[in-house]
Amino acid sequence: MKLESLAIKYHDGELSILDQQALPLEEVWINCHTIQDMCDCIISLKVRGAPLIGIAAVLSLAQYAFQGASIQELRKAIQILVTTRPTAVNLKNYMDAIDKQLAQGNLVVAEMAKAIFLEDIELCEKMATHGANMLPFEATVLTYCNTGSLATAGMGTALGVIKKAHQAGKIKHVYACETRPLLQGARLTAWELEQAKIPYTLICDNMAGSLMRSQKIDCALVGADRIAMNGDTANKIGTYQVAILCKHHQIPFYVVAPYTTFDPACDGAKSIVIEQRAPEEVKGFMGKINFAPQKASVYNPSFDVTPGSLISGFIFDKGIYKADELLAMLN
Q: What contacts 327, CB < 8 A, 6 or more positions away?
């Protein structure tokens, strides 16, 4: 079995990921040999993005099965993998789906891994089409964090919409927020926009309000790590601020995600576990520079939750929905 995307490769038991911590200065591929290798890559954000985290974990299980792991060993690996990023629901959804099928034998893991990988490519294409059709010509779009081919197996979620709209000649300009503290917007989204030759400007996160006031922004497009039944959406920390600014400036704010990110068992923000990350991420940058006092107290949630009431619409693979229409998507 051979599966390849921009950020992950699998070929008959050989699994490697593009180190997203090294981008954009270097393109470094990391070989993963064990479940623990994959856990380390997910926790350290060498592989990231809710859809891709789930896919990477699935391919790690496929590798483990290829190596001869028993059903019991695979179930233990699932329990370990699912704890690596508790907010990103795609990971749990995929792990639960595989766990339910393991009674058929460990060969089912490779079959499901291939199906999940190929489905994500298709889902990205559908989301991109719906979103691109919605955007006006000469659109100026604001985006946050990274939601492209580095976060999925396909062309991306929010960034996939931008890419598809650019192909249709509908994108005038993109403003990419840097996305503190790990700068996924500056390092990854800017890199993908350059690869796609899409005109863009990078801004600091705290410049978004000023930009909205002084420039014509047609809409903001963001991704998601978990969408609750009522539309409350967990995404990279800072998304909530963008949504509030859009509401104030009467700018449409859209969440772009596959159905695999929708969690109908979650009733709202209070039920979403928010991952807390290391203080070093805020006090410095990737271990290369420190700019805060050593004893500084740090608050570092990886995600925040945007209320469904602030979201203009959800661009899913099945179409575009309002917050009160999400359950209809399951039918």
A: 229, 264
**What are the residue ranges of helices labelled H in the chain?**
35-43, 50-66, 71-81, 89-101, 107-134, 158-167, 184, 190-195, 208-214, 239-249, 280-283
Q: How far apart are CA 4 and CA 2, in angstroms?
A: 7
How many H-runs (helices) and E-runs (strands) does the chain carry?
Answer: 11, 17
Q: Which of 121, 144, 176 is the last residue of a domain?
A: 121
The three-point CA angle 78-225-40 to 5° equals: 45
- The reply to whether the predicted model has a pTM over 0.85 is yes
Within this chain, do residues 117 and 131 fall inside the same structural domain, yes or no? no
Q: What is the DSSP secondary-structure string of 26-43? A: ---EEEE-SHHHHHHHHH
pLDDT given at position 243: 98
What CATH number did the domain enclosing 207 receive? 3.40.50.10470
Helix (H) or strand (E) holding 49, with range, is none
Query: What's the domain range around 253?
Result: 126-330
Enumerate residue ranges in the chain where pLDDT < 50: none
Among 61, 90, 121, give the residue marking a domain's end. 121
Q: Are residues 56 and 167 in the same domain?
A: no
pLDDT at 106: 87
As for how many domains the chain has, the answer is 2
Residues 163 and 291 reside in one and the same domain:
yes
How many other C-beta atoms can be found within 10 angstroms of the C-beta atom of residue 173? 17
How far apart are the C-alpha atoms of 310 and 319, rounded to whole Å?
19
Helix, strand or coil for residue 184? helix
The predicted pLDDT at position 88 comes to 87
Report the CATH number that the domain containing residue 80 is assigned in CATH: 1.20.120.420
Let me know whether 68 and 186 are in one domain: no
Residue 317 is predicted with a pLDDT of: 96
Residue 324 catalytic? no
- DSSP β-bridge partners for residue 17: 8, 30
* Active-site choice (218, 225, 232, 304): 225
